[in-house]
Design brief:
39% of the residues lie in helices and 15% in strands. It is α/β, with parallel strands linked by helices and 381 residues long. The two termini are 27 Å apart.
Length: 381
């Protein structure tokens, strides 16, 4: 059986209750939520309401109606950036961002948005003092990933959010790698926009995501259309979540997402975090003993999510990943991880790294198998 160590791309396997929820909605509900008054349509809408409420409990969100469902974190980020910024606005970000942030920002830059990228150090860390220096009168938004998808390194989002609040500007967090894995309270942390996928740490199906829109934020929708509400009007509703949710939502997927969140709530975020920290520490400590291996990012497991990036001297990372897959049946991800700027920061561009990302359902024995496999591959260089 394949040892799956690519949870930073998408978590696998899912809790059994996720599969059951998706199956239940597909087989026994099937209706369009919020578009009809019959019982099946109302039941479909109930699943969406439950998922919003579960997310609100997990992330400590005061108003579940300000959780807007999307297809993925990328759509959420695009909605936040393009719905907020206009020509002449300034935005600050870091050199460790995923392309889901950098590409929309570069597009917006061509439309008159002023983009500043604050460089991180060789381990991918950023100083809030450097962000503060970059703020000018035109700055409207700071956008940061909460954890790098390349190194797993945690970014100072809470401190940056406090700075943004002090300066009267907005804060957006990309929680693609942290939602469901790192404790987060939107009551305590002044984050105005939070984007996340459903299929990673939240253990839901692919094709699900959401954007949390703070009470001080008004966004332009990316699309207009049918919402099931105010159908007599030809203009888009002006209230959330309907304003941002035109078209039929992925009800089976979002029901699965709700089940994934419920699993996390029952299991306890702290126990999930504790296990993943233990597994990633085990990987780091094992790989660091291999002479030809070089590791990237923060050394302490508590300063990372469960991601370990490495290279083997003399071998292309994609070749290493291919050998792990074909010879050892171990699934990892290699290359630039859709984050070329991050790899330029780390000095691993253009080949990238091999990324290992264990999850809650992995076992210590699988980490031992990985370490043994990498040692054998490195020994043949």
């Amino acid at each position: 059986m394949t040892i799956y160590l690519d949870n930073a791309a998408t978590s696998h396997p899912k809790p059994e209750m996720v599969y059951q929820a998706v199956n239940e909605v597909l087989r026994n509900v099937g209706a369009n939520p919020g578009r009809s008054g019959h019982r099946l349509s109302l039941k479909a809408e109930h699943y969406l309401t439950q998922t919003r409420q579960s997310l609100a409990r997990l992330l400590d969100i005061p108003d579940p109606q300000r959780i807007v469902f999307t297809a993925n974190a990328t759509e959420s980020i695009n909605l936040g950036l393009k719905g907020l910024l206009k020509a002449g606005d300034g935005v600050i970000t870091s050199s460790m961002e995923h392309n889901s942030v950098m590409r929309p920002l570069r597009f917006l830059e061509s439309k008159g948005i002023l983009v500043k990228v604050v460089p991180c150090d060789l381990k991918g860390r950023i100083k809030v003092s450097e962000i503060k220096k970059a703020i000018d009168p035109k700055t409207r938004l700071i956008v940061l990933t909460q954890a790098s998808n390349v190194t797993g390194g945690l970014m100072p989002v809470a401190e940056a959010a406090e700075l943004a609040r002090q300066k009267g500007i907005l804060m957006m967090a990309d929680a693609a790698q942290t939602a469901g894995l790192i404790p987060l309270s939107l009551k305590e942390m002044p984050i105005d926009l939070l984007a996340a996928p459903g299929h990673k740490g939240l253990m839901g199906p692919q094709g699900t995501g959401f954007l949390v829109i703070g009470p001080e934020v008004n966004l332009r929708p990316l699309k207009e259309g049918g919402t099931g509400s105010r159908s007599e009007e030809e203009i888009q509703p002006d209230f959330l979540p309907d304003q941002m949710e035109s078209g039929t939502l992925n009800t089976p997927g979002l029901a699965g997402l709700g089940a994934g969140v419920e699993f996390i709530l029952r299991q306890g975020l702290s126990s999930i975090r504790e296990k993943e920290v233990s597994l990633s520490r085990m990987v780091w400590e094992g790989l660091r003993k291999i002479k030809a291996v070089e590791l990237y990012g923060p050394e302490e497991a508590g300063e990372r999510i469960a991601v370990v990036s490495f290279t083997i001297k003399g071998l292309n990372p994609n070749l290493v990943a291919s050998i792990l897959d074909t010879a050892y049946d171990i699934a990892v991800r290699a290359g630039l991880h859709c984050a070329a700027l991050a790899h330029r920061t780390l000095g691993t561009f253009p080949e990238g790294t091999v990324r290992v990302s264990p999850g809650f359902f992995n076992r210590e024995g699988e980490m031992e198998d990985l370490i043994r496999a990498v040692s054998e591959i490195a020994g043949k260089v």
